[in-house]
Amino acid sequence: MKKRLFNYFVKGRRFKKEFKRQLRMLIVITLGFTIAFTWRQTIFDISLSIIKFFTKVQNSSTLSILTSILITVVSLVLIYIASYYLRDNNENY
Q: Cα–Cα distance between 74 and 82 in angstroms, integer?
C-alpha cells in the first residue's frame, strides 16, 4: 500500500501532470491579477469618459456607479466567452 501511494505521488505521471497544470494556473492567475491591478485606473477613466459621452451625467457618484456597472457587465461577458472557448475536454478529467 505504501509503495502504491509513493508511486502515485512521487513517481506518478498523473500527479506530475496535474501539478504542472495547477502551477501553470497559479502563474497565470497571479500575472492576470497583476495586469488587472496595473490597468485598473486607466480602464475606469476610459469607461467614465464613455459614460459621460452617452449619458451627459455630471454627478460624480452617479458616474462612478454607472462606470462600475459597465465594467462589470463587460467583464462578465468576457469571462463567459473565455470559459466557453477555453474549457477542457472531458478526456482530461
A: 12
**Dist. CA 69–CA 11, nearest whole Å:** 49
pTM of the model: 0.58
Q: CA–CA separation, 26 vs 39, rounded Å?
A: 20
- The Cα 60–Cα 27 span in angstroms is 37
Label residue 21 by pLDDT band (50, 70, 90): confident
Q: What is the pLDDT of residue 6?
A: 66
Task: Output the nine-digit C-alpha cell for 74.
Answer: 463587460
Alpha helices in the chain (DSSP H): 2-6, 13-55, 60-85
Please choose, from the candidates 83, 41, 84, the residue with its C-alpha nearest in 3D space to the C-alpha of residue 64.
41
DSSP label of 87: P
